[in-house]
Amino acid sequence: MYGRYTQDLGTFAKDEAARLRLQEGDTPRPRRPSELLEYTQGRCAPCRVCALQCQRFLISKVGEDWVFLILLGLVMALVSWAMDFAIATCLQAQKWMYGGLDTNVLLQYMAWVTYPTVLITFSAGFTQILAPQAVGSGIPEMKTILRGVVLKEYLTLKTFVAKVIGLTCALGSGMPLGKEGPFVHIASMCAALLSRFLSLFGGFYENEARNIEMLAAACAVGVGCCFAAPIGGVLFSIEVTSTFFAVRNYWRGFLAATFSAFIFRVLAVWNKDEETITALFKTRFRLDFPFDLQELPAFAVIGIASGFGGALFVYLNRKIVQFMRRQKTINRFLMKKRLLFPALVTLIISTLTFPPGFGQFMAGQLTQKDTLVTLFDNQTWAKQGLSDEFEYLGILEAWRHPRSNVFVTLVVFILMKFWMSALATTIPVPCGAFMPVFVIGAAFGRLVGESMAAWFPDGIHTESNTYRIVPGGYAVVGAAALSGAVTHTVSTAVIVFELTGQISHILPVMIAVILANAVAQSLQPSLYDSIIRIKKLPYLPELGWGHHEKYNVRVEDIMVRDIRYVTLNCRYRDLQQVLHSTKMKNLPLVESAESMILLGSIERAQVGALLSNQLSPQRRLLTLRQKVLSEDGHRLSDSSIRFQISTEASSGSPARPALRKPLKPALKRVPSSPADSPPAGAADHTGIALKSLFCANSTAEPTEAQGTAYHKAKRVRISIVEEMVLGDKMTPAEILEWEEQQLDQLVDFSSAKIDPAPFQLVEHTSLHKTHTIFSLLGLDHAFVTSIGRLVGMVSLKELRKAIEGSVTAKGVKVRPPLASFRDSTASTSDADTTALRQLWDRHQHHPMPREASPGGDDDDDTPKGQ
Amino acid sequence: MYGRYTQDLGTFAKDEAARLRLQEGDTPRPRRPSELLEYTQGRCAPCRVCALQCQRFLISKVGEDWVFLILLGLVMALVSWAMDFAIATCLQAQKWMYGGLDTNVLLQYMAWVTYPTVLITFSAGFTQILAPQAVGSGIPEMKTILRGVVLKEYLTLKTFVAKVIGLTCALGSGMPLGKEGPFVHIASMCAALLSRFLSLFGGFYENEARNIEMLAAACAVGVGCCFAAPIGGVLFSIEVTSTFFAVRNYWRGFLAATFSAFIFRVLAVWNKDEETITALFKTRFRLDFPFDLQELPAFAVIGIASGFGGALFVYLNRKIVQFMRRQKTINRFLMKKRLLFPALVTLIISTLTFPPGFGQFMAGQLTQKDTLVTLFDNQTWAKQGLSDEFEYLGILEAWRHPRSNVFVTLVVFILMKFWMSALATTIPVPCGAFMPVFVIGAAFGRLVGESMAAWFPDGIHTESNTYRIVPGGYAVVGAAALSGAVTHTVSTAVIVFELTGQISHILPVMIAVILANAVAQSLQPSLYDSIIRIKKLPYLPELGWGHHEKYNVRVEDIMVRDIRYVTLNCRYRDLQQVLHSTKMKNLPLVESAESMILLGSIERAQVGALLSNQLSPQRRLLTLRQKVLSEDGHRLSDSSIRFQISTEASSGSPARPALRKPLKPALKRVPSSPADSPPAGAADHTGIALKSLFCANSTAEPTEAQGTAYHKAKRVRISIVEEMVLGDKMTPAEILEWEEQQLDQLVDFSSAKIDPAPFQLVEHTSLHKTHTIFSLLGLDHAFVTSIGRLVGMVSLKELRKAIEGSVTAKGVKVRPPLASFRDSTASTSDADTTALRQLWDRHQHHPMPREASPGGDDDDDTPKGQ
Fold first, then answer.
1. What whole-number distance in Å separates Cα of residue A415 and Cα of residue A34?
2. pTM for this structure?
3. Dihedral sign, CA of A262, A268, A271, A274?
4. Nearest-by-Cβ selection for A503 from B503, B748, B785
């Protein structure tokens, strides 16, 4: 994450999306299974026919969703298990090295520090070289992708390899990094690759909507097979990646995640790690009396404290990134030596955890997994009254320090791990923050639990029995609460139940998680939203809950009224003007400046293409050549036809079929000029001459004629063409004259791709509903119309402003508090009536003298009257 | 459910929705807290001011969501607990009666049978009289309501009382009925009432979008406090009631459901029923080795069998309802004596469960709760090898029969309870089917478990240890699988974890639930969808998964092309014609018949109102009186102004301000005629004379001028007016002539409510996307446009047809299989280009001779040319 993302990633993503969407039409389709029939000619035909039929049956089954989901689950389980195995081996190796060198503390220290530094540096370098997109968690990017934005290279094989290997090395180093976030990304990549692979067998996997659904299921698989928590995985992935969730995808997620978790745990059984399928971090708390009602305040305290802690973590994480970016000198130095920052951070962290050094006060020798196992332990660590005989057995030993007590160790652990985790997750390697936060939460819970146990050594007294306090239960609650606070999710509760295999603490966990969320959500965005903002990815903030004033703000309060538009009967000069005056990605197409009836929307790139096509050197050369030819007295008829076309096209003569015929000779001559072959192989075999004439250019153009860049490109091209000569005998002055002449022609929209039904809102739509619709449909802009008339536009930006409360910003008007009460009763407002009346009037009297346009105070520059 | 719902409930619901929406504008707003300031005048003013400020602070807090959710949770927990207490008392009473009369079997039988019969009959009668809407589960209705349909009387206090009392009696009878479904309904009613109550303190609770969100949270509370299962409750309610779910509501559901479940369980602790908060049906399976991998096939068998069983249950339930309805004679008899059917069913069921009779073979003396407790028991019931010493202790005794073994008892129990539950849930009392199905599933699981235990008496052998099989675990799996199959949900898995307090069987449960769902979903709709269809509520079927052909069907294949529309410059006669020729609820408003540019949509009721307003006797009388007055030579100028207005309004003279002045005297005279006062008190104080003149009628009219009824109403009114005389000296012939004259006038739409941005689709939108948008936005129709031109319409009906596969039906064209491959590459299709070109042409040459309209083959009756 560090240093990689600049201001324009969001813009870049959108441009890429537009580009990819344009390209989509060109990709060749895979061959259909029916082509296989050709092979049936030969000996042993019946046998082959039978085999073929079987094959075809299988192929038809491959198209089914469940096959895909099962395959995805299987692959991901294998990946997860293999990775866990590799990580465990790495950690084992470090432990072995450290243990083997116990004769010399310096050597021991060298081994302890060098090993993770090398691994992290390798991981950072490897991902940097192979696929920088693999850096970081991946959940923010998946959230963006599921919102419909296409992020380049985020779902490729290269990124997959980089992420898997990078993640294994990063986690193998023993740094406080997590596996969950990257696993969501890995599963998504796996789904994308699998669907591309399976599409070799048939065309089922080419639908975009379906691919999005599969990606949503893949996110669930990612979490599910990482923690062997199918239910929690599905819920967590929903909460983290979606705003609106289709219940039919739920099913897909459950199937894939369950299968994946099953295989993941079965692999452990087959590997003799486990006797049977059980939870990953199995706890053995007593069932009959899990907790006392009077302990609930302590759980609530954990929840509230975790809420503050979670917000602080997100804040700290963001501040570190921003600090690294802002400090120019540090930044320049680190950017030069890209691997220095990861190495430095690893060095500091591993030095501090060195067990014979400071690590002895914070159980530094334990791996993340061991730490969690010890924290969830059934026993009480604190000295309980008289009986001091409790033995720290096995790995529990790490928490004991001869010169201090367990409280000090826990506090040091929490404080140190807190900033270490926040720092470590900014390293540019594939890593998540869930697991480190989970461990810190567990430690905090344990601290509270141990304090409670020390306070009530004999348990809280009930009438019949006394039950001692179980600090392990507090650790579970703390883990769920802190991770819930950082990620702003409630499903961490379900994840802890599945991780520990016990659900007896359900109420404390739920209470703590909900309180933690309430606190954290009111203070900071979630960690993933924070990263989205840092990376400047396109996003839409959530509507906070309880802000009922959001229901009273309306579209008319936040919309941009002064928007540029393209009219149906405009000239190329107008297009040029519009392109210069606005930066909107989509321009509304209206019937005329007077009626303002919205007909559709046209992409900026398309407008640019139209313009550059009109002014293209090819067209100029063609004209020139024709002029020369006509001057020669030869081919006079053809030239006149060509000109007839251009005037016809702009003045709009009746029907196309009549138009198509005279155009053909003109088209056939076009490829003879070398500068004219379509660059991207975008040959259009539809057979319509007119279309191919215009389309070849319009599909190839957008990348070079992106919006404002168009004008510059035009100038450059003039000089290029001058160098090329190619029979171009026009002087620059002549060219300019020709261009001016061309700009005065009427625009022929027939070659442009127009979205015929852009999303429309009404002025009275509430902000709440607008937000809902934007997030439901993944829009990034919507036009505001009033009875067919375009009156404004709302884009993600305005919406974001309005939601984040900066409603006083430019172009945004604050609505008086009681405004909604005033006019919510009258659903036919004055504005509607006026607009309708105008429209209606216009139809009655076509040649009208003058009419007052109520919303038209901002388009005075457009000509009045037809 | 039985017999109550006729064909037209769906239609009725929609009409009601339209009516309520129209009425909404009229309801008086509650007084604002600012009015309270008046009371501060008096002695001890500062003290009062302080108190008032406190009060105002509290009132402002009342507007917060969390206050509402906490209150809702609290109330529902109290209701749930009180109801459980009452039910337990009822059941205790029956047991006591039955136990006390053990000297005489006949008396015992009488008591056993009469008690439930009386209770059920009372419940049926009570709900029938107080609120018939309280009958049945309520989940289907909630699903419909959350889709945006307004069902009358479904969320009122009367229904609430009827449902609570009816449900308590029904469950107290010991019939195999459930509490869950009705509880969803009760919680929703509670939320609606609470929000109405809290709105007395402020206007926060009046937003419709917010109310829908609160209802969604209430559904979660309903399930949550019924089972003390907050997570399962949220998930179950999402799966059962929503198609698309807003993740921000998730949070609300969790908060309310957790609080509710907490209070519900705390009440049990305070009542000394429990020592601390634990699960409702706590199990105590061993944790270290919950099940063996080799047992998984048995769990899968349970899942698959449950799938078939679930589908059979839904089928059986539907067939019973349909049979009762179809059998005219039975039906007529039962309808006459409405309470006979419930009494009869109760009699049969309670006779069969009579413990000394047939009940001894099916543990008839156990209540539903006891049955579940015994089925989840830790011990193995079947005789295990040599050791026959197992003692059936306490209530377990019921399962033992001296002359048969436990397998026979279980089989008989399953078979009898299966049809009993299917039959009992058709009784017209408030009742759900979840719990009975859950119990049957548990029994089936137990049966499989006991068989496994008998087959492997020493457990499945692993290398180190032998672990015996736990049949209770199988019961848990079976319960989740069967209830999941009947309701088509996966979250029953979560519910069983929360009910039993153990999550160790997570994988078997998940596998069984998923398999059961896969089987059941492919055979039958869910129980709730089945009831929705039986009750003919408006619904949209789910897109099956794996049907990838759905991605290839497009809107153009399913849309209705031949639709009626209203043009902006049409005459009243055209409106009349449109009303006669179509039954559409919403008519599209287009610019003109040639351009077909969609401007908005207008409700049928509004069109009717426009027409009847134009032909209203008041207007006629006014004209008449003015004529008379002008004949008197008096007030000549005023009359001419009046006429000038009507011509002005229709011919569209420049500006409104100029128009307002001459109208006022005409308006002021209007109330002087007695037939003229607006009937519903819909006085419009906006001050715009023109508007109030038209609006007063248009808001009052729709109820009587509903669509096709308008024409009849008109004729009736003529005769009424004739009787009223009131200076009406026109003969019927004159009236008709006058009306004909009126019909030839141009329509003035300024008084009609026009939806200025109806939802639009494009011809190329896929069926999949259309379904998504319809269910996301709760639409019931959408217009299909092509560059602003209206080309067709898709309504819920067409969509439903297309999804359910009857694509060969009338008006629906089957798309050739490869069609999508042909044209998915060309996003600028011919049709678009043609349409655009036409529009463009039209603008270039205003007086055009003739143009070929591609989609206009059905509007040849409309005049061509402007």
1. 65
2. 0.74
3. negative
4. B503
